[in-house]
Amino acid sequence: MSNIPANLRYTKSHEWVERLDDGTHKIGxxxxxQDLLGDMVYIEVPEIGRQVKxxxxxxxxxxxxxxxxxxxxxxxxxxxxxxxxxxHPETVNKDPYGEGWIFQLRPSDADEWNNLLDAExxxxxxxxxx
Length: 130
Fold this sequence. Notes:
- The chain has a single domain (9-111), classed as CATH 2.40.50.100.
- Helix content is 17%, strand content 32%.
- It is built from 3 helices and 9 strands.
- It has helices at 31-37, 91-94, 119-129; strands at residues 9-10, 15-19, 25-29, 40-44, 51-52, 57-63, 67-71, 76-81, 103-107.
């Protein structure tokens, strides 16, 4: 079973969301997703300042196996991106919940947090794919 931290929220499309103390959210792909995709070779991050809606394609991760869209779990504004992934996309494989984060967002609708899956619910989604 993949690593699924209890303090994060998740989407059925394998993104994780961390709520930060300042009200913003850090977002990446789950350990399960990076494991399925394999070795990352390129990460296309969203543009800072971009307005996104929940469920919208906002980034792309490319691995030796496939390219996959990353969907924004919440509506809001992209306020930061992980530029270190430009030269080290493999960080997503090594540390998907830490240094492998992809972007940070300032949400426009705080209630959307309640639509995300908790760790137990996401574990069920991941288990169905194993």
